[in-house]
Amino acid sequence: MLAGRHILLIISGGIAAYKSLELIRRLQDKGGRVTPVLTKSGAEFVTPLSVSALAGTAVHQELFDLTSEAEMGHIQLSRSADLLVVAPATADLMAKMAHGHSNDLASTLLLATDTPVLLAPAMNVRMWEHPATHRNIAVLKEDGVSFVGPNDGSMACGEFGPGRMAEPDEILAAITAKLSDGPLNGRRILVTSGPTHEPIDPVRYIANRSSGAQGAAVARALRDLGAEVVFVTGPATVRPPEGVQVIEVESAREMEAAVQAALPADAGVFAAAVADWRVASASDRKLKKSKDGLPVLEFAENPDILKTVARMTTGRPKLVVGFAAETNDVVDNATAKRKRKGCDWIVANDVSPATGIMGGSENAVVLISDDGAEDWPRMGKDEVARKLAARIAAALAG
């Protein structure tokens, strides 16, 4: 799928720069042509010789290279590629991009291009979570820049959390999706998935049996059609798909915040099994058995994420798709839910124990829209996802 495609790979400073060497090899294995750009700080972590040897071409480092500048080489570099990839993308380089600075080759290339840009951020967790970084990310997303990662994990500094650069396979999948000629190329789609965990105390929580398999399958199918997918997932038992932006959350309130931060989007697919209720005041200590009997738990209603997005007056996605897991009167209950929430489509299924669907590998759904209720035969969850993704592509094209 990458045969003959030209990727301009910018390697900036950070310990994660070593992963970019493997990324070059993976891109070439898929037939891609890589032109490397190494920043001054990037050269502190990987050598120009190693990058050049893997890429099979010269490494570009200096803005004012007299050999190439006679033909405005830095402009040509930025416009001859099919995709600009920055891996790792540091907080400093993202700040330069967000504010239009161009005082070195990498930042100048990124400012002088109208070619799509994909960033793989890598930084300390505190830097990633800083408000300034979040402001810069919001600006870059508004400018049409795509992201892959970062992931949660341990870091060279000894801390743990978000900020670890995506793995080469994940970046490769994101590049492939970005360069695909699929019908969703250039579209940004938000997908929620998995259950939510609502704490009772530090060791107990309220949850449901959702595995997150159907939501993950939908995200993969949308990615394969070329969409930029933002995947907000609760603590699911299946791995998130590669090549999408993964945001991991625990509770319904965390999911609501992540969804709001991920907007705007062309479409939203709300496949998560969000808990309707939470304990109003979760204990900060483990609840103990008492002679006075069982503890009394007071419940509060969780935010209705689907309804909130579906009824937005500004910035609403063009298409909002909800899911309804029912155990009886599936069509009637799901039809009422669609009207109550205000979404465009509802994907309904029967998750009563006899069906074996909840947590299983198959699904049997009914698609409810303005056109009525359309029964789909029982099939694998991946096949359901591909069929739904194709319908979403057709709806957004119309």
Automatic annotation (TrEMBL):
Keyword Flavoprotein attached: yes
Keyword Glycosyltransferase included in the entry's annotation: no
Source species, domain of life: Bacteria
Record-linked Gene3D superfamilies: CoaB-like, Flavin prenyltransferase-like
Assigned protein family: In the C-terminal section; belongs to the PPC synthetase family. In the N-terminal section; belongs to the HFCD (homo-oligomeric flavin containing Cys decarboxylase) superfamily.
Protein name, UniProt field: Coenzyme A biosynthesis bifunctional protein CoaBC
Residue ranges of the region described as Phosphopantothenate--cysteine ligase: 189-398
GO terms for MF: FMN binding; metal ion binding; phosphopantothenate--cysteine ligase activity; phosphopantothenoylcysteine decarboxylase activity
Keywords: Decarboxylase, Flavoprotein, FMN, Ligase, Lyase, Magnesium, Metal-binding, Multifunctional enzyme
Catalytic activity, as annotated: N-[(R)-4-phosphopantothenoyl]-L-cysteine + H(+) = (R)-4'-phosphopantetheine + CO2; (R)-4'-phosphopantothenate + L-cysteine + CTP = N-[(R)-4-phosphopantothenoyl]-L-cysteine + CMP + diphosphate + H(+)
Function: Catalyzes two sequential steps in the biosynthesis of coenzyme A. In the first step cysteine is conjugated to 4'-phosphopantothenate to form 4-phosphopantothenoylcysteine. In the second step the latter compound is decarboxylated to form 4'-phosphopantotheine. Catalyzes two steps in the biosynthesis of coenzyme A. In the first step cysteine is conjugated to 4'-phosphopantothenate to form 4-phosphopantothenoylcysteine, in the latter compound is decarboxylated to form 4'-phosphopantotheine.
Sequence segments annotated as region (Phosphopantothenoylcysteine decarboxylase): 1-188
Pathway where it operates: Cofactor biosynthesis; coenzyme A biosynthesis; CoA from (R)-pantothenate: step 2/5; Cofactor biosynthesis; coenzyme A biosynthesis; CoA from (R)-pantothenate: step 3/5
Domain DNA/pantothenate metabolism flavoprotein C-terminal intervals: 184-394
Binding site for CTP: D276, K286, P303, D304, I305, L306, F323, K337, K341
InterPro entries: CoaB-like_sf (IPR035929), CoaBC (IPR005252), DNA/pantothenate-metab_flavo_C (IPR007085), Flavin_trans-like (IPR036551), Flavoprotein (IPR003382)
Swiss-Prot/TrEMBL GO biological process terms: coenzyme A biosynthetic process; pantothenate catabolic process
Species: Leisingera methylohalidivorans DSM 14336
E.C. no: 4.1.1.36, 6.3.2.5
Cofactor: Mg(2+); FMN
Residues the record marks as active site: C157
Domain Flavoprotein: residue ranges: 6-177
